[in-house]
Amino acid sequence: MDVRQAGGAILLMFAALLAMPPPPQVGAAPALDPQQELRALRNLISKVDKEMAGVGRTAKTLDMILTDMESRFDGLIQNVTRLEQQRDELSDSCGALPAEDGVTAGVTASSATTAEGPRVKDCEELLPYGLTQSGVYTIYVDNRPVRVFCRLENGVDAWTVIQRRQDGSVNFNRSWAEYKTGFGDPGVEYWLGNEIIHQLTSSGDFYKMYVYMEDWEGGYIHIQFDEFYLESSATKYKLRLNLLRGGNTRNAMYFNTGQAFTTYDQDNGGYGADCAKRYGGGWWFYGPACVYANLNGNYVPGGQTQDGIGLVWLYWRSPVWYSAKVTEMRIMKRDENIPIRQP
């Protein structure tokens, strides 16, 4: 090899060394390619978009499921209503069954009604349909169906029963919420519900109330008030009674008017007497003595009782306390020209 060839080779080697990148420093981060960073960011955005699209599809699916459930629930309510109507028609064709105490029990209907039944506000509005037999019917309060016991008398009077006791089969020692919405079986024992009673008696019509109490020997007492209504839940369903008319007993509910309703879990008596806990049931108790009348108290078989325990009316067997066998609180529209309402 001549000198020129050797020199050329050396020059080539030196140029190659200059072209080589410097060795990486220990611990230094590798240089990032801006293009690679952009591609990575685009990939991340694409993944987020896909996940968001998946969330949207899931929300849409859940919305469809909820809509379907609401539709199924509405259909169930309609089926229950149809079954009640069919039960009414079947009961009418078979005839009403007499209860043990001689009071007609069960559901009654009439061939004069439509397939859906008459949409009436109270039992009195059943009379134009030719219904004359006491029993359980459907009325509509605030456009909601409500099952009630109707006391129909001689095709003239039609009372809507808001409270019924006859055998102690239903526990009346209930909470505020239960007394508000109502409980029990209209064909046997029940409380219609404070909110329903309020809506029924405060919707523009004027109502009277009739109280019936039967003893264990076949006797009874009764009394009528020409004005009855419940105020709203804002006042704890204060009772308004006025204008005593007729009956064979003195007014033991005189002190109850103007009182708020009380239950064992909501004492609204204003005296801290815990009347509902002491005497049972929910009622418009008055003062520290609590009981002058209480038709929602604990059911006491046999009649004889003491200290105001039971279904009591102060003046029935006074000075002895006596607990009734049967009680009914019935209401019916009255002549609106009789007096104005109490303030």
UniProtKB/TrEMBL annotation:
Keywords from the named record: Coiled coil, Signal
Any Pfam family the entry gives: Fibrinogen_C
InterPro entries: Fibrinogen-like_C, Fibrinogen_a/b/g_C_1, Fibrinogen_a/b/g_C_dom, Fibrinogen_C-term_domain
Gene Ontology cellular-component terms listed: extracellular space
Keyword NAD attached: no
PROSITE patterns, per the entry: FIBRINOGEN_C_2
All residue ranges annotated as the Fibrinogen C-terminal domain in the record: 114-335
Signal peptide from the UniProt entry: 1-28
Entry coiled-coil feature ranges: 66-93
Protein name stated in the entry: Angiopoietin-4-like
Lineage, top ranks: Eukaryota, Metazoa, Chordata, Cephalochordata, Leptocardii
